[in-house]
Design a protein that fits this description.
Length: 128
């Protein structure tokens, strides 16, 4: 299987699953904010984000103007998220905590649409 298609399936399912989990139980969003204040949770989250982002970038660093750029962008965002949380934990947590609830909802809907797009590319459900 092509690495691009594998990562399209991975990120597509990942984004859809978390969208439905957070939509079904929106209290989890606040719980994640609260848990980020715990240094152990923040280090674990940063560690996982760096690993996922770095693996994504090492296996798929494609800067083409098509659907593969979305996968590369998600990998870089994950790496930057983890790096920021490792390097500047207090500032990062304050910045995340200052986000408006409506903005968070918009971001989750956007991530849901990106997940649908990647799954459509991977499985070719709706031809375009």
């Amino acid at each position: 299987m092509d690495v691009s298609l594998f990562l399209a399936k991975f990120w597509g399912w990942y984004l859809l699953i978390f969208f439905f989990i957070l939509s079904y139980n929106p209290k989890r969003i606040k719980q994640i904010y609260d848990d980020l204040r715990d240094q152990k949770f923040a280090i674990l989250a940063a560690f996982l984000a760096v690993i996922i982002g770095l693996l994504n970038i090492l296996f798929h660093n494609v800067w083409e103007a098509d659907w593969r750029f979305v996968i590369t962008g998600l990998g870089w965002l994950s790496l930057l998220f983890g790096f920021s949380l490792f390097t500047f934990p207090n500032q990062f947590i304050k910045a995340v905590g200052a986000l408006n609830v409506k903005l968070v909802q918009v971001v989750y809907v956007l991530l849901f649409l990106i997940g649908l797009y990647l799954l459509n590319v991977a499985y070719q459900l709706v031809p375009y």
